[in-house]
Fold these 3 entries.
Entry 1:
Amino acid sequence: MGHMPIGPVVAMLVLLLVSCSGPGTAGGSGAATPRPSAASPASSPSSSPTPSAASQVFVIVMENRDFSTAIAQPYTAQLAASYAVANNYHAVAHPSLPNYLALTSGSTWGITDDGYHPLPPGGLGAQLTQAGVSWRAYMEGMGSDCLASDSQYAVKHNPFAYYGGACPPNVVPLTALQGDLATAAPRFVWITPDLCHDGHDCSAATADDFLRSLVPRLLATPAWQQGGLLLITWDEDDGSSGNRVLTLVIAPHVAAHTSNQRYDHYSLLATVEDTLGVPRLGQAAQATPMTDLTG
């Protein structure tokens, strides 16, 4: 019997291999894309959880009240009685600015004043932008120049103005919030009240009234009602309580309760980043997230 030529045999073998190959084989159109490594100097020691499609985070930062004064205000007390309270939560520095930087980058950057210090590009905003997570920071009283403080708006309460020495377009006046809530709120919402409404220059009662006017609007949105998380914290105390400040954790599924676990601003940042599915920055990587309060 004669031998089949080598060429046809090879062709048949190649055809057989191609027909038996699955879509996951190298070169196939359905090849799995390798996941990028989560390892980086700013990453959490463990991988961040994958957020649900509905996960939404709102953060409001108030000013200069110790725990007992803040929680004694009528509307704030109502929120505390209805949701979760971090009973042993501490700011990380004095004065304001290093606390705002800790909340958005996991570091105070060694800053011990409220002056303007351009920092390298980065921080939570840049991290979310790179990850494709929509976000906006709403600054009450801010004009067209985010670096220009006036009688009501203070740059030191706008941490996003420091990273890279300029504000990203995501930083907008608070007047833009209502329209965004009515359409499609960003996945991360940061709110800085003005110097009166945050309690810095006005009374604790005035700050409480501001929360009374703002918070119900947030809780009425589908963004919050469908798995959202609202965190309200105070940047620092008034110097009377070892920097112990009130932090409220408000979510639709959270029953009223209190945690005595020690937390700080790095814990809040870790909680935000875990919820949004991005690695933790700076000292948030070693911080304890507020999982006993979020559900």
Entry 2:
Amino acid sequence: MKLTMKDPYSKSRILSPRIRGYIDLIRPFTLLAPIVVSMFIMFASLIFNGKIEETPDWWIKIAQASLTLALVNAASNALNQSADVEADTISKPYRPIPRGVVAADEAQSIAMILYLFVLLRAITINAWFGTFVFLIMVFTVTYSLPPRMKKYLFINQVWIAIPRGFFGVLAAWSVFGDPLTSEPFVIALLSMIFFMGAMATKDIVDKEADEKTGTRTLVNTFGVKNAAFIALPFMIIPFAFLLPFFVYSQMVASYLLPLALFTIPSFFVFYLMLKYQESKSLENVHAWVLMYLEFLFVAIVFSLLTVFGTLGMIPAFF
């Protein structure tokens, strides 16, 4: 029975190798963050904007919108694998396309079907949500396909941080509230800056493959250790400096100050980047796993602080 991405494909009574290949194509572990993050942020927006009484089916709306954001991520994963066959054959031969379980053109077709479904579903939530989902689609498609921003140094970091950090957070908040108010805008900005550095973790195992296929990253241009030092300020500045600044300038409430503690796990991500030890079950290094978990908990803590703060259950720090 194939349980993880790196396990061999074999026949079973439950799922065929092709079905398991489709599952691997969308990379389920990476869908955990958009589902959980969006659900918590949507609930925080619901409470913050006082919409719970006028939205009796709020939990259905949250489920539908979070699934939509997860599926756009799934489409991006499938499209990326269809475009990265040469590189994956070198660094990730266990993926379904290099293994011959799923064809590259088949994966691209699956991605486009998912994108179409996601867009049609998103515009039924509301106009803001549909707009942000469309922008996420534009960035993720152009990241993998021509002009293929993935291959350009520095631009690739920004290109992946904007949809995952900035637009993703604003899309989730827009389900029940105005995404252009200070609270969602600030947390979206902090998340985007964090991802600009933290996303370097995903390129460590692809160092040689990216070099051979013409993709320039922080890792294969400056080396793993130098890339870690370049990424570090982006991972700590949002929580250690920008958040306190926004609090003291009264752009966001003081009950969000505990988010500054996420400076600590950012240093652990940096430390694990220096070690660059690959996970035996997941398809990347431990730093990449911790990075995803850190962002997940940033969103959860932000949402809980917002909910309890809005309800007056957290006293103001000043």
Entry 3:
Amino acid sequence: MSLSVSSNAVRGTGGAGPFERVGDFVRQTVAIVGYEARKLSHDPSELLFRVVQPALWLVIFGGVFSTIHAIPTGSYSYLQFLTPGILAQSVLFIAIFYGIASIRERELGIITKFLVSPTPRFVLVGGRGLSASMRGLSQALIVVLLAIALGVQLNLTVLGLLGVVLAIVLGSALFSTLSMIIASIVKTQERFLGIGQLLTMPLFFASNAIYPLSIMPRWLQYFALANPLTYLVDALRILMLPNGTGLFPLYVDLAVLFFVTLGLILVESRLYPRMAQ
């Protein structure tokens, strides 16, 4: 993949107009996303393996708790309530281990090539974060098809589906950028895997993915409200369920995801050169 841009773009933060700068930013970001897409296309079997986990959660966990009616889910069946949570969980589990790719690229010298290219670090990091959404979107298709096969009624309107795409893109970018920050600090796969496994379970269980916040202990509710996965689940429930309602308005959920992602990208833009050391 070539990350080079025109000579004006390389020199051009001074002479280029605002529209040219935006165009350069978009082209460079698309180049990064395209690079990641080609990596995924070379190993499509990865997508098949990712069917197993959401299937187990929806069929076994969802099936059991749907029969005992132990968790209050309002007007929705437990399987309906669970489906957006399992989609959010899938996005989290895929994205949180995205930093392993950065560690491997560091070992192969690819990170160094990225850093000596004219592409700004913010674009490098943001493009990598956005590219993780491709795996998240493929997972969304798997979860939706599984849910439909199980008889779950979903909101499949065009606006609802577009909103789901936006929420998944933001959620994938958020957790993959967090993953890259961890990779920039620890730099080895062994340490990264340990921290990644340490983070995923607390983030998942201290959210509203499989039960509502209302049945949590008070101290855990505070933790859940500081957990970005809660806002991803909340947005997906509003968008995916018929007449969906959430803890917060949809714009609040999306705004939290956007600004947390932006902050993480800025942090990783400062840390990214450490990957080459």
